[in-house]
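Reopening this one. Same input as before:
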Amino acid sequence: MRALCLLPVFVLLGSFCSLEAANILCLVSTAKHNNPGWSQSLFDALLAKGHTLLVISTAPNPEPKKQVDGLLYYHLHNEYDVMKKHFLLEEPREYKNMVTIKQLLVWYEVLLGSCRSVLFSDSMSSKLPELNAHLSTGFDLIITDVTQGIECLMDTVNGWRSKPVLGLSAGKLTPDLMALLQAENTINAARIPHYISQVPKNMGFWNRLHNHIMYFSESLIHLVIIRPVINNYMKTETGFPTLQLVLLNTHPTLDYVQNLPPGVIEVAGLHIKNKTSPLPRYIQEFTEKFRDGIVYINMPYIEYMNGQGLKAIDTMIQANPSCGFIWNVEQLAQLPAEKPNLLTLHVDQSLQQDILAMQYVKGFLNHADSFSLQEAIHNAVPVIVIPLKLEEFNNAQRVMERNLGVVLQAKELDQNSLSGALKRILDEERFTSALYQAQLKFRTRPQSPLELAVWHAEQLIAEPRLFKYFAQTEALAQHFLVANSLDVLTVPLIILLAAVVTVGNLVRVLYNARSKAKLSSEKEVPKKRKKSKKSSTNSTPMNTTLKLETSELFEDLNDEILEGEEQLLAVEEKPLEMKKED
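Same output, byte for byte:
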């Protein structure tokens, strides 16, 4: 009887459990340099929550070796390499510097080249029939990587418009992401440096001018280049899907503080493990030998740096025998010579996090990618960065401004520059102090990035229209002049111009009048006075005006005198008359 009484409770719990489990489609088509594997931690967490996942990914790691319950994984190849195509020369072997405006064109060329690579790859053509069969089933949520502002695989998904779409971006907040969210563009070009520029946070006039050119050029590139080319690969509306939310790989400790639309959630550090794994014993024993600690090197393409990169690292290692160096040589064509204080390894992302988490690590050499810098901040490790491409220059500028490390430019690299930079991060306390503060801010959050990402994903599954009103389609529909208040600013501008014209005309009239008066006074000739007939030839000239005034004065005096005399006579005559009467 007791079991029968508890039956409704079991049924209710079972119904809740069935509602929690969802069918999720995960699309990741970005190239290797965008680190498509950073979203794997989110997928693993959703699997652990009991959801079923279909993952189509270009992550460099192959599909799982063993079958995982609830996971169906398809690996696609994306061979696009932005470094080899735009920044590296094989003959001679060197790195090519590129101005920022040209890098903006490269940023969008990456978008097209990456899509072309994955859509026309052999793995895509061979797996497409099987993928179409799986993609025809219904999904409760679609998670897509929109780091470059586009998702190439969305065109293969039928009926995606009726499903909530959660975007992942490994980069920074861009106008393209705002457009996908249908949100108001909160990026102010007068205050927020462009995401691939080296513009400082405190911008002067020329910095702001450069920054505005970068932002305004994007709309032109989209209109003239991107959309016409994309139409040859897929439908435009599927290449630029409407998103309900975006999980963004940024945090104020590394990125600039800005106003985020309500549909943008910052989850920087999403890829960082909660617990690090113990290092292999031979690595642990190596780290314990050196009293000045360990320096970790992950500097791809270092051999292209003016022919000085490998020599610079070799000089740095020899100049610091009391420091141990762990060098990730995965992408080196030739291994460096053996040294007692050098350990060379092939390091993946997981092992790198385990190495940086060691208390012995005192420095980290990298090329300023966001993921490595976040791991350095998470573990309070000073960095030496050599930015190579696109958003790495922006990251390097933030590192320099916030005293998180030392920035070197590829063209400035020589045999002594790395040694000098290492000495600075080991000796100067300001780097350590700044990093401890940044670590505290980076780690202190109401929720971990992973918990925040999972919560929002499940909220979209439970209530797809929960974030519907975050979009502002009316803002997107506004004309450029209206959206930027240029039409309103024309009114005071016209008034100002009218005032300037009026004042200018007044000044011109006054100037002309003064000039004419001056000219007339210079041309006027004094007239000759006629000589008086009565005056003798020897007499001096007389002032006519003075003469007239003098004569009038005398006449007035005579009249007054006559009046006075008449009054006296009248007074004298009165007594005489009185006497006669008597």
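So the earlier flakiness isn't reproducible anymore. For the record, DSSP finds 20 helices and 15 strands in the chain.
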